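Here is one chain, start to finish.
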Amino acid sequence: MKGLYRFSFLHLSLFIGALILQDMWLFLGFSFLAGLVPRLRINFFYYLLLAVVAFVVALFINPIPEFINESVGTIIKLESLSLWLVIALVSTLTMTLLAKAGNALLLIFSPKPKVLAEANTEADYIE
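Its structure:
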């Protein structure tokens, strides 16, 4: 788990970049790339926590304009549910699922590291 904390800043920056660049293909690509970085089995909730933190940071960097929020609120007719909450739910779950899928594919397709055999084994000393 110690090695995972080294990659958390990289995962967080990929998630933030996916959100603030405002391109669908970069969003999907950066989210999937976050799962490909370490060859460790990573928990779903780790990616979910980083996606939520990234969305909060991206919301402060690039806020949703108020007139869009009000116009969508009148169309949807849900006064208790705001637009940024719907976007946060969909985007964080999408980023989390893409990163987890990338991590699962990495563990399936990458070869396991070979354990080096000891140079002097018991069979070498038996004559």
